[in-house]
Amino acid sequence: MNIGDKVRLLHGKEEGTITKISSSGQVEIEIEDGFRIPALKSEVVVVSQAEKQFFGTAEEKIAAWTPSAKKSVKPGTQEGIFLAYVPYNDQNHGVFLINHTKRDMVYAVSELFGENSKTLGAGVASANSYHKLDEKSIQQFEGWPPLFFQIIPINSRVEKTISPFERKVKFKASSFFRSKRNAPVLDKDAYLFQLDTQVKDLDVGQLNRDLNPEQVDAKPLTRQFTRPAKEIDLHIEKLSPTYELLSNTEKIKLQLEVFEKNLNYAIASGMDEITFIHGIGNGVLRMEIHRYLSQLNHIKFFKDTHKSNFGYGATLVKINE
Questions:
Q1: What is the pLDDT of residue 182?
Q2: Taking residues 127-145, what's their average pLDDT?
Q3: Which of 287, 60, 217 is nearest to 276 (CA)?
Q4: Burial of 54 (0-12, 13-18, 19+ CB in 10 A)
Q5: Which one, of 269, 265, 272, 263, lies nearest residue 290 by Cα?
Q6: Kind and range of the H or E element at 314?
Q7: Which of 37, 46, 265, 266 could be 271's S-S partner, Cβ–Cβ 3.0 to 4.6 Å?
Q8: How many CB atoms lie under 10 A from the CB of residue 191?
């Protein structure tokens, strides 16, 4: 068993790549979702070459994506032109243009550097297709240049004219990291943005109205909004009565969903601080929480809480007024 081997957990659903091997008999595995989880060597098995050739792996499927591919689409998904950032791991993201409409379109996409630009891709995007434009490291998020899109719908027969449009995109962390959902056509979890509608930054007032629609006409909204508790326990046994049936990935996702929901409620209701108790464990949940918080403009600061209270197993978040 070596670094780089493809492995599967014997008592779970996860599989991934070994990124670290310790002398204590533990290994660190990077799974498809981008998380890195620890495991004992005795709890993992190397995926054989024959099995990989027959079934393939998640990474091989990603590598097999062509710059342009056409796929079947689930019924009922929203149509539109989308920009998608698909996480390959906890750092690298594939950048895709998705044409989830019934028309072919001519497109050109460029990165802007002041008065200069660099074309990332251009051509014809067929109906219900995706085109890979680039790969980006999330560690360099603040340095990503603005993107400029030019889209021209193609009328292959006499039909209603749809006007060409241009769109300039420059992300803020507060909006980017709240946009993760399933990308149409690709059918992958991605940070997703629709280009044929206006991309909006986080609006605390709108967030308040979305979370509490029955009080849209009530003023002031923040005073009538039900605040979360000042301390939110994210231990998995507190969140799910059937936690023992969940995989490690499902546990982390549930904990992060509860964290994000309560943080949104705390911001929308005007709280000045909130504490999330995540425990010590293997540190994955703490790392994900701290990484998320570091991207938000509404956070004054965050820190590990005092040892006598939670043994550094919690994070205190101070919210901007």
A1: 92
A2: 90
A3: 287
A4: exposed
A5: 263
A6: strand 314-319
A7: 266
A8: 21
Residues 6+ apart with CB under 8 A from 153: 101, 103, 104, 105, 161, 162, 163, 164
pLDDT at 241 > cutoff 90: no
Identify the architecture of domain 65-194 in CATH. Answer: Sandwich (2.60)
Taking the complete model, does pTM exceed 0.85, yes or no? no
> Residue length, the chain?
321
Q: Count CB-CB contacts under 10 A for residue 19.
A: 13
Closest CA to 120 of 167, 67, 70: 67
- pLDDT value of position 310: 65
Q: Which of 77-81, 164-168, 222-226 holds the top average pLDDT?
A: 164-168
pLDDT for the residue 58: 46
Residue 86's identity, in one-letter code, is V
The residue extents of the domains of the chain are: 6-57, 65-194, 204-319
User: Would you place residue 213 in the very low, low, confident or very high pLDDT band (cuts 50, 70, 90)?
Assistant: low
Of the ranges 94-103, 135-144, 294-303, which is most confident? 94-103
**What whole-number distance in Å separates Cα of residue 305 and Cα of residue 158?**
65
Task: Sheet containing 273-277: give its strands across.
Answer: 231-233, 273-277, 314-319, 299-304
Q: What is the pLDDT of residue 219?
A: 46
In sequence order, the 6+-apart residues with CB closer than 8 A to the CB of 216 are: 209
Q: Which residues have CB under 8 Å from 145's CB, separation 6+?
A: 111, 112, 113
Cα end-to-end distance, the chain, whole Å: 52
* Domain with residues 204-319, CATH architecture: 2-Layer Sandwich (3.30)
Task: Give me the torsion for CA of 283, 284, 289, 293, rounded to 10°.
Answer: 90
Q: Is 219 helix (H, G, I), strand (E, B) or coil?
A: coil
